[in-house]
Amino acid sequence: MRNVALSWVCGRAWTVSGLLRVRARAPRAAAFAAAGTLAGLLAACSGAAAPSSAGAPTPAPVTTGPVTTGPVTTGPGDSPSGAPSASATAPARPLAGKVVVIDPGHNGDNWAHPAVINRLVNVITEMKPCDTTGTETNAGYTEAAFNFNVATRLTRLLRAEGATVILTRTSNHGVGPCITQRAAIGNRAHADAAISIHADGGPPGGSGFDVIEPGLIPGHTDVIVTPSHRLALAIRDAYHRITHEPYANYVGHDALDVRTDLGGLNLSTVPKVFIECGNMRNASDAAKLSSPAFRQRIAVALAAGFTAFLAPAGGASTPAAGTSVPAGGASIPGAPSG
Ligand code: ZN
Predict the structure, then answer these.
(1) Which of 328, 332, 324, 329 is nearest to 95 (CA)?
(2) pLDDT means per 10 residues in the chain (338 residues)?
(3) How far is the CA of 10 from the centre of ligand 1 (A)?
(4) Helix axis angle, 222-243 relative to 292-310, nearest 10°?
(5) How far is the CA of 1 from the centre of ligand 1 (A)?
């Protein structure tokens, strides 16, 4: 078996490289200065250590099976039973009662377990590997770490809005789960909406983001195609408005793509999209994706998209909603402990 690392993009291999999996330590991206008007947002994330920084993995048990997950209802907005509620300042909770499943694509140790992730699974339209390694920036910041970091930030924001959030993996130091199981987690939870978070490994000259929605597979995706399209529009619009990331110029159309080759979509029974937050193989996008401040902005954008989809009349879906996140962000409620 050749030690070949696929720059695998949600099932699409843009490039194949023979890179050894030498894990270059990703530098702190201090160069990227986020522009824009979300001063409160940036304040909220300043000083927030990346929950899963690429450069400082801590030893943790390898998760080889399906990640045990469950609804975690304790969020920063929750007040202890009987405790006085600071109603005057409490953030709106437009997502109370809603269940969101977040799938951080790939996993940090997938690369070391090819036998596990290369096992073929049935995604209806084809047989494909259980999971893939994902891509990385030239500096060695892995997509798996990026995905998990954004997912953790998004989890915090959605829980602050009252949602029950379930993650398909709770650390970046494990293997899998298989794409089939990632879909099943959302199905079992009867999620109101689900997202699989990725960053692309596209051509170096390409940049921008892309939202992927399920195509029609008669007998399988019939009921999710329409709501997933609405979710895709909500996520795309919020992402573009808040991150200012352009629509991808090398894939999709208007930052939308319809696919029937992704197990995470084909096997979903709940509204679901994938997002490629940017192109890690593009220098400009890589600089942004490597910035904790930009990742926080991404999380705010995704949260706004979910709120627009799940509670369109609930308001509080503007970027300003992100400012209700407790400042400092020292810890993330419900954050995986390994
Ligand atoms: Zn990916």
Answers:
(1) 324
(2) 36 37 35 34 33 35 36 36 48 92 98 97 98 98 98 98 98 98 98 98 98 98 98 98 98 98 98 98 98 98 98 58 35 31
(3) 5
(4) 130
(5) 23
Q: Give me the CATH topology for the region 5-20+95-312.
A: Aminopeptidase (3.40.630)
Rounded to 10 degrees, the C-alpha dihedral 316/318/324/327 comes to 170
Distance (angstroms) between ligand 1 centre and the Cα of 196 equals 9
Whether omega for the bond prior to residue 177 falls within 30 degrees of 0, making it cis, is: yes
Q: Active-site residues: which are they?
A: 276
Q: In sequence order, what DSSP letters do the residues of 100-156 get, joined into one string?
A: EEEEE-S-TTGGG-HHHHTSEEE-SS-EEES-----B-TT--BHHHHHHHHHHHHHH
CA–CA distance, 244 with 205 (Å, rounded to integer):
19
Q: What are phi and psi of 122, to 5 degrees?
A: -90, 120
For 238-260, b where at least 16 C-beta lie within 10 A, e where not — what string? bbbebbebebbeebbeebbbbbb
Q: Say which residue the tokens 């709770």 belong to.
A: 170
pTM of the complete model: 0.72
**What's the CA-to-centroid distance between 5 and ligand 1, angstroms?**
13
Q: Taking the CB of residue 200, how many other CB atoms lie within 10 A of it?
A: 31
Looking from the CA of 193 toward its CB, the CA atoms found within 13 Å total 27
Question: Domain spans of the chain?
Answer: 5-20+95-312
Helix, strand, coil share of the chain (percent; to 5): 30, 15, 55
Closest CA to 243 of 193, 273, 211, 209: 209
CB atoms within 10 A of CB 194: 31
CB-CB contact of 9 with 135 (8 Å): yes
303 and 154 Cβ atoms separated by less than 8 Å: yes
199: tokens are: 């960053």
